[in-house]
From TrEMBL:
<dbReference type="InterPro" id="IPR051697">
    <property type="entry name" value="Patched_domain-protein"/>
</dbReference>
<dbReference type="Pfam" id="PF02460">
    <property type="entry name" value="Patched"/>
</dbReference>
<feature type="transmembrane region" description="Helical">
    <location>
        <begin position="115"/>
        <end position="140"/>
    </location>
</feature>
<comment type="similarity">
    <text>Belongs to the patched family.</text>
</comment>
<protein>
    <submittedName>
        <fullName>PTHD3 protein</fullName>
    </submittedName>
</protein>
<feature type="domain" description="SSD">
    <location>
        <begin position="1"/>
        <end position="140"/>
    </location>
</feature>
<keyword id="KW-0325">Glycoprotein</keyword>
<dbReference type="InterPro" id="IPR000731">
    <property type="entry name" value="SSD"/>
</dbReference>
<dbReference type="GO" id="GO:0016020">
    <property type="term" value="C:membrane"/>
</dbReference>
<keyword id="KW-1133">Transmembrane helix</keyword>
<feature type="transmembrane region" description="Helical">
    <location>
        <begin position="9"/>
        <end position="38"/>
    </location>
</feature>
<keyword id="KW-0472">Membrane</keyword>
<feature type="transmembrane region" description="Helical">
    <location>
        <begin position="44"/>
        <end position="63"/>
    </location>
</feature>
<feature type="transmembrane region" description="Helical">
    <location>
        <begin position="83"/>
        <end position="109"/>
    </location>
</feature>
<keyword id="KW-0812">Transmembrane</keyword>
<feature type="transmembrane region" description="Helical">
    <location>
        <begin position="207"/>
        <end position="226"/>
    </location>
</feature>
<dbReference type="InterPro" id="IPR003392">
    <property type="entry name" value="PTHD_SSD"/>
</dbReference>
Length: 291
């Protein structure tokens, strides 16, 4: 926003900070509990940031809607209305994410287990910080706007006096407009108008609803068929670059040596007297029996 009082830069920064606090809390707890830290866990902060910013947008949008509905209401009623609108969707998405990653801890791969533990715990902390820390930041930001304070310095902006002799640059920085008039609160967002006036009536048409049900049935049938075609395993060629020398190696191995099966090796873990002829004959006999 161009308005120096309604600009929400710090609000957005605190939303990102909330995700960062969730990452620090989860990593600290897991390391304190002795969960191994593997390289794949370093990707978890990007996942948490995406979910945390999404929750932040939901909270801000619900706050703005509550503010338009109950502009003269108290902060408590505004925050209650915001949580009534946003907390349900944030809770459901968080539960599905946490459930998905905690199910992943059942895997036999230790690296995947550690990644799922770190990420799932981070989602829990992200939810806690969004419901507590970010809600408090919303209230503080609202009080700053109500006090007509600058977004950067938090100093009170006096609009009605002394602006005539100030420069346009000064007014743009301290008021948000060169016209020496405070910017008015904007109306409803164009995207909200589109979904309310056009997309909503279009989707609720009975023929469109029937078409959507048919499309979903086709999608569900295709998904079930796709699940039956999944092959378990991993193709090592997919882990290398397209121009890597590894790909021709695996192609030749599959073409010429796939019929022989995997290599079998025999390892003797005990100390034996290899210079003893009877020991050598025993080892050869063992290898012949395995063949």
């Amino acid at each position: 926003r161009l308005s120096c009082t309604r600009n929400n830069i710090w609000l957005a920064c605190c939303g990102v900070l909330s995700s960062g606090l969730a990452v620090l809390s989860s990593f600290g707890l897991m390391l304190f509990c002795g969960v191994p830290f593997v390289v794949t866990v370093a990707n978890a902060p990007f996942l948490i940031l995406g979910v945390g910013v999404d929750d932040m947008f939901i909270m801000i949008a619900s706050w703005e809607q509550s503010l338009r509905k109950k502009e003269k209401s108290s902060v408590k009623s505004l925050l209650a209305e915001t949580y009534a609108e946003a907390a349900l969707s944030v809770t459901i998405t968080t539960l599905t994410d946490v459930l998905a990653f905690f199910i992943g801890t059942w895997t036999a791969f230790p690296s995947v287990r550690s990644f799922c533990l770190y990420t799932g715990t981070a989602f829990v902390f992200c939810y806690v910080y969004t419901m507590t820390f970010f809600g408090a930041v919303l209230v503080l930001n609202h009080k700053r706007e109500q006090g007509n304070r600058h977004w950067l310095t938090c100093m009170r902006v006096d609009v009605g006096r002394g602006q005539a002799e100030n420069s346009c640059l000064y007014n743009a920085c301290c008021i948000g407009s060169c016209s020496r008039q405070p910017s008015q609160p904007e109306g409803e967002h164009p995207m909200s108008i589109f979904f309310k006036k056009y997309y909503g009536p279009f989707v609720t048409n009975k023929w469109i609803k029937l078409l959507l049900v048919l499309l979903y049935g086709a999608y569900l049938g295709g998904s079930v068929y796709g699940c039956t075609q999944i092959r378990e395993g991993i193709d090592l060629r997919n882990l290398a670059n397209d121009d890597s020398y590894v790909i021709p190696y695996y192609d030749d191995e599959e073409k010429y040596f796939s019929t022989y099966g995997p290599r079998v090796m025999v390892v003797i873990t005990e100390s034996v007297d290899y210079w003893n002829e009877s020991v050598r004959l025993g080892i050869e006999s063992c290898a012949q029996n395995l063949e």
